[in-house]
Amino acid sequence: MKQETKQCQNCKNKFVVEPEDFNFYEKMKVPAPTFCADCRMQRRLIWRNERTLYKRKCNAPGHTEDLISMYAPEHTFPVYDHEYWYSDNWDSLDYGKDYDFSKPFFKQFEELLLAVPHVALFDSKSFNSNYCNLVVEQKNCYLVSAGWGNEDSMYSNRIAYCKNTLDSYVSHKTEFGYENVYCKESNQLRFSLRSESCVNSYFLYDCRNCSNCICCYNLRNKSYCIFNQQYTKEEYAKKVEELNLGSYKSLQALAEKFKSMKLKAINRFAYLINTQNVIGDNVEDSRNCYHCFDLDGDAENSKYCHWSTRGLKDCYDSGPGAGGSSELLYEGISIGVKNARCKLGAIVWYSHDAQYCYNCQDSHDLFGCVGMRNKQYCIFNKQYTKEGYEKLASKIIEHMNEMSYVDRKGRVYKYGEFFPAEISPFTYNETVAQDYMPLTEKDAMDKGFNWRPISSKNYKETISWKKLPDTIKEVSDSILDEVIGCAHEGKCDDQCTGAFKIVKDELDFYKRMNLPLPRLCPNCRHYGRVRQRNPMKLWHRKCMKSGCTNEFETSYAPDRPEIVYCEGCYQKEVY
Questions:
Q1: Which residues of 524-536 are buried (b: 16+ CB within 10 A; e: fewer)?
Q2: Could you give the percent of the chain with pLDDT greater than 70?
Q3: Where are the domains of the chain?
Q4: Cα dist. 56→80, 223, 298, 469, 504 in Å?
Q5: pTM, two decimal places
Q6: With 518 labelled, which of 72, 396, 448, 496 sits at a CA distance of 20 to 30 A?
């Protein structure tokens, strides 16, 4: 089959379908997409809410208590607490319905989605971590999202196996870490980016095996360095005292210097570690992957995938939440964890041969189902025989092509398209779409996406961030009773919470680490970290090393000021 150029029915830009793409679509028994890769990713992201949480009533029979949920209170569908949802006290088959050939498939799916009970938060095997969402095996964590195996950690996103880690993003096996982005296997590392195996350091960029360093970049196996200058242990101790690292004002001044310093650093065109034939960024131990981002390892023969745990084989357009020893996935979000031949779904775990499903687990041969566990051969939550299932599924696919769903912007959804954004239980600004493809309310509405207005705040600010003490030594436990006004004062990308509180474990951490109180609310701090990562896009560029003619695909846009080298030149310069 030949290469084919198509026009995206969403953004109207041209995109190319390669011969190997057609081979994959044939294997998955789906047509070629009508949305380009970026628009497909955006459409999926609108179905994943990681961090926007609400207080609402538990709707389980006999329950009247409040619970924390990712679903806004105005949703009319039932929301159950974790224990009740996973119990045998209710059966998703009770909500089964016959397929109606007089209505488009997605209209009927929306009706089912609004009827079946939903679990308040997605959490597995966690302890004392009630405010965490999309997490596994957490212990004593608070407001950690998309995390795995963390302990005593707070206000972080996409961290794994971390202990006593606060305000971090994409960190792995850090301990007593603070305000780090893409860091791993480090202890007492603060305000750092893309550094690993570092100890007791501040403001590091692309450093390895360093200890007792401050405001440094591109260092390897160094100790007692400040601004990339070597000191003796005694000289370093004296400099540290002069820098007054416990002071908020001093740290702010250092942060500004570090921001300027980083522009002198040599940046590798992409973080591709132990890979073969991979194009993308932040990919480890993988092969034959194209346009993939943030793959943890053991991925192969995949395309347009991102945020995958180990084990991803023969998959397209999957993530966040792909991998987990899965294969043959297509157009899915949170569709990993030992899955096979799953497509066009959201939150499908430990299953195979499932399509157009939402929050289904330990099941197989499902079509258009919601909230199913340990089920097989079901369509719209109704049980069929194997033969009856296969016969009806074929008819539904034909019907989806004959009676297509058309959204309010005129986009046509036949069989093979992912769920329309407008039927998602989440609005654009509640989801990770806003993290990675931020829009204003007007732009989102113009594109046909739903938007949830910022609700009026019912708190009363008791202290301004400007009135906070400069050091943690000046702070008493009375701060726990204060409502602190955020430094952005409600003007931060429509995501600022306006004010915030300090909790006891958080205060203990600041005291132990001699860190001043934050001046921004947790949301503003999160978005500040997300802005430090490169976008999940690629540009064709040349190596900036004089005399080098190598070209590559990189997530550094051509108009950015950083120095970007090919892998060979980077290795020669830094190591």
A1: bbbbbbbebbbeb
A2: 98
A3: 56-119, 135-268, 280-405, 463-530, 539-574
A4: 10, 51, 40, 36, 25
A5: 0.94
A6: 72
